[in-house]
Amino acid sequence: MTLFDRAAAVIPGGVNSPVRAFNGVGGDPLFLVSASGPRVTDSAGREYVDLVGSWGPALLGHAHPEVVAAVQEAAARGLSFGAPTPGEIELAELIRERVGVAELVRLVSTGTEATMTALRVARGFTGRDLIIKFAGHYHGHSDGLLAEAGSGVATLSLPGSAGVPAAFAAQTIVIGYNDLDAVRAAFAAHPGRIAAVITEAAAANMGVVAPNPGFNAAVAEIAHAEGALFIADEVLTGFRVGPAGWWGLEGGWTPDLLTFGKVIGGGLPVAALAGRADVMRMLAPAGPVYQAGTLSGNPVAVAAGAATLRLADGGVYARVDAAADTIAEAVRAALAAEGVPVAVQRAGNLFSFAFGSPGECGWSGPGPRTYDEVKAAQAWRYPPFFHAMLDAGVNLPPSAFEAWFVSAAHDDAAVEQILAALPAAARAAAAATPG
Ligand SMILES: Cc1ncc(COP(=O)(O)O)c(C=O)c1O
Ligand SMILES: N[C@H](C=O)CCC(=O)O
User: Fold this and answer.
1) Regarding the domain with residue range 3-60+320-431, which homologous superfamily does it belong to in the CATH classification?
2) Which of 165, 357, 390, 420 has the most CB within a 10 Å radius?
3) Distance from Cα 234 to the centre of ligand 1, integer Å
């Protein structure tokens, strides 16, 4: 009996989060037993260069010794107190130091909780019910945010999720990404009823699709003019694409609320809701919007997050950016050498690949700019590409809808191994046929 058979007998679908299954590429998922630096090791003892990075948290690479030491020290002092701790203040201060608009910070355990709470706060603050989200964006799995969501929902080709009451879904207006006219039209159609617009600061759950220049600023301006809040979901981009996330990298817009996760937990479960002090003071016990968590601000988890942020200096971002540039360009060149049309989708050091060309796929830019355009890509070329890379010891995200995550630990040896695997993978992509 394989580990996957054993898992499937006791865990629905054999995984504890759908994106881990290989539904988008075929085959059985790897079962990992350890990870260090840029590499992971599976249950058969085989080592892979890793470009999943725990889906984002592993900015420094896996099991950075100083992060592990911080976790061990914190664990030795106690695993959980259910009371305020100095460590959670430190993490909140580190977040605010880097992202000035994060005037107040509430720590939670998952990105899902952060975005779910952001919507509740926005509704409490504005006294309105409706929310705008963009098709293809993923904000976790709370009821109101699963419609036309990216990530695993996109990989499984689901329009949303069963189990969401129609009345809840009706509170979410889903519109096309990078479409300002659609934002204006939604506000015009529902005057005085929209509490907030939530957007991935740069979309990275339908593959990577950066916002058009000025898009975030214009959405924030429209929302504010209409008395609504602008919520920037930086769970994935925050502290990854730069020291102050996409907000710091792009500049020119002011969110009322931001959500963070992934990197701020350094591999342990920490996420956060942050933003304007007057809006954040809606949260209980300061205000009337209830939110709570037995393990919120867990002392071991915040120690991992604070250690990670302290270590994430300019040198770290320079290394991640350089490795991302090298790998993205090498993939493009390898595919071009085999005559495979591809668009390299970038948002800072995040990247993914959309197979096809504007002519073949009807893209409005050099690559897809909306979820509909993403879905028009030649995604059928990804599974053989993925498996050829895996065979050569490179662990890619098992879905064309996910970003590739590089770390500061991706040294020359790791990058060389990726580059060496590319020619065969490009040949496999070239030989692929639809269906
Ligand atoms: C942009 C974004 N928001 C929210 C989430 C939800 O975070 P979590 O998986 O920690 O619930 C994710 C990833 O899962 C994400 O990428
Ligand atoms: N794309 C997701 C988040 O960014 C991947 C994490 C998950 O849902 O397991």
Assistant:
1) Aspartate Aminotransferase, domain 1 (3.90.1150.10)
2) 390
3) 9
Distance, in Å, from the CA atom of 71 to the CA atom of 376, rounded to the nearest integer, reads 44
Active site positions, annotated: 138, 233, 262
Query: Is the shortest distance between the CB of 55 and ligand 2 below 6 Å?
Result: yes
Q: Which long-range contacts (CB under 8 A, 24 or more apart) does 91-94 make?
A: 91/264, 91/270, 91/297, 91/302, 91/305, 91/306, 91/309, 92/272, 94/306, 94/309, 94/310
Whether 405 lines ligand 2, by a CB cut-off of 6 Å, is no
* Residue ranges of the chain assigned to CATH 3.90.1150.10: 3-60+320-431
Closest ligand to the CA of 139: 1
CA nearest neighbour of 355 among 370, 210, 339, 364: 339
Interacting residues of 270 by C-beta distance below 8 A, sequence separation 6+: 91, 107, 108, 109, 261, 264, 297, 298, 301, 302, 304, 305
How many Å apart are CA 145 and CA 114, to the nearest integer? 12
Flag whether pLDDT at 435 surpasses 80: no
Q: Output the average pLDDT for the chain.
A: 97
Residue type, position 5, single letter? D
Going by alpha carbons, the residue nearest to atom 6 of ligand 2 is: 55
Q: Across 120-262, where does the E strand assignment appear?
A: 130-134, 172-175, 194-200, 229-233, 257-260
237 CB near ligand 2 (under 6 Å): no
Contact yes or no for 122/294 (Cβ under 8 A): no
Average pLDDT, integer, range 164-185:
95
Amino acid residing at 338:
E
Domain with CATH 3.40.640.10 in the chain: 65-311
221 — pLDDT class (breaks 50, 70, 90): very high
What confidence score (pLDDT) does residue 338 get? 98
Query: By CB neighbour count within 10 A (0-12 exposed, 13-18 middle, 19+ buried), where does 213 fall?
Result: exposed
- Name the residue type at position 409: A
Pocket test for ligand 1, best of 110, 112, 141 (most atoms within 8 A of CB): 112
Architecture of the domain defined by 65-311: 3-Layer(aba) Sandwich (3.40)
- For residue 271, give the ligand nearest its CA: 1
Q: What percent of the chain has pLDDT over 90?
A: 97
Q: Which residues contact 394 (CB under 8 A, 6 or more apart)?
A: 48, 49, 51, 417, 418, 421
Per-residue model confidence (pLDDT) at position 136: 97
Between CA 313 and CA 274, with CA 103 as vertex, the angle to 5 degrees is 80
Query: Residue 110: nearest ligand to its CA?
Result: 1
